[in-house]
Amino acid sequence: MALKPDxxxxxxxxxxxxxxVASKGGVAVISTAASGVANDNxxxxxxxxxxxxxxxxxxxxxCDMVDKDLTKTHLNFYxxxxxxxQKVTILTKGYVVTNMLVPSTTPLGxxxxxxxxxxxxxxxxxxxxxxxxxxxxxxxxxDGYVKVSINL
Length: 152
Description:
Blueprint: E1 8-18, E2 27-30, E3 45-47, E4 57-61, E5 64-66, E6 81-83, E7 87-98, E8 112-115, E9 121-122, E10 132-136, E11 146-151
Parallel strand pairs: 1-3, 5-6
Antiparallel strand pairs: 1-7, 2-3, 2-4, 4-7, 7-11, 8-9, 8-10, 10-11
């Protein structure tokens, strides 16, 4: 899954760690409640929730979280790779063009974007209590991408 270069990043945050391999373009949620307001708090964890019911959405993950042996290779900064366990860039205000949609959904421009399982988006809540995270600006194109705005 991925993001296209057509995006508008008005506000991003880098105060959460992500301890899993993940693709960019989905919506992350708070994994654990952080204690304190320190920028390097180890308890500030973001994740793609398998069940988003009642979770607090953070925003779109803007980089690929990878698990590489850094003694043999390096991260590909051109592909926006970040090592698992490091800080993740999260878009909280703006829009992206993503294909991170729940399979067999057909969003329409102007409809709400709800959080689905594993960071995927859906035009209707698949799971009761899933948060509304943004709005679909377009319907899916021929490649399965859709423009989604967010303001969290």
